[in-house]
Amino acid sequence: MIVFYADLDNTLIYSYKHEIGPERIGVEVYQGRTISFMTPYTYQWLGRIREQTLFVPVTTRTREQYERINLGSRPAYALVCNGGILLEQGQEDAAWYAESLRLAEDAADALRLGEEYMTKDPHRIFEVRNVRGLFLFTKSAQPRETRRRLRERLDSSVEVFRNGEKVYVVPLHLNKGMACRRFRQRLGEETVCTLAAGDSGFDIPMLQAADRFMAPEGLCDTYGLQGGERWKEGEGIFSDFVLEQVVRRLSERAGKD
Domain total for the chain? Predict the structure, then answer.
């Protein structure tokens, strides 16, 4: 079995603010408005790839945010809340969530302090959310400064991420890479090869855990990622590049069989 782990936002789907060409397919509706899109190429080939791989979305989105997305049909599995929650046929796996909470236990004090610091942050422009006891999230008018202050004040049991104006505090042992390793163990010997695609710091552990990965060149350089398939800024759309690489990998394997 080939497992294809993929981040969603800015890896397979794009906000209405992102230019991906005039022919785009709406995949997320929120409050009556279509807010996320895919390119026709990505949408078409993802459907075909799902017939040959086990496609597993791996996203920091909450379950509610993930369920707004329509990829044609619901994937059998999805890892949401940065991998802290496993959905199987749309249902939460209670044992998986309980184990995720155990993995986050050593970060409990840092999360509590992080929530306090984020609440008092003068640059905060959004409420502070504790997402299911798994991580913290807010928005800042000065996200670099907010991240810097949190990083200085919190211990190494957590990581602090910035994505645009969004700022997150995440337990060190509750990341996408750990989630993919847990899921691979769940599948057991059925797994032959794992592919992964992502575009941000959240995705680094997942990319490192995969047998083969696809990522933007700038991300690879920033985090020192070696190997993999690198997409260069300005050379088409990243999601199309990802699907092209997966198709090529499947063709290579078919030729060996």
Answer: 2
User: Is a pLDDT exceeding 80 seen at residue 17?
Assistant: yes
CB-based contact 206:177 (threshold 8 Å)? yes
Residue identified by tokens 């300005």 is 234
What is the pTM for the complete model shown? 0.94
- Are 124 and 247 part of one and the same domain? no
- What is the rounded distance in angstroms from the CA atom of residue 72 to the CA atom of residue 62? 20
CB burial class (10 A; 0-12, 13-18, 19+) of residue 185?
exposed
pLDDT on residue 256: 66
Q: Is 217 exposed, middle or buried (0-12, 13-18, 19+ CB in 10 A)?
A: middle
**Domain containing 68 — which CATH number?**
3.40.50.1000
List 169's β-bridge partners, or say none: 136, 160
> Which candidate, 239, 81, 92, places its Cα nearest to that of 170?
81
Residues 112 and 96 in one domain: no
CB within 8 A of 59, min separation 6: which ones? 7, 8, 9, 66, 78, 79, 80, 82
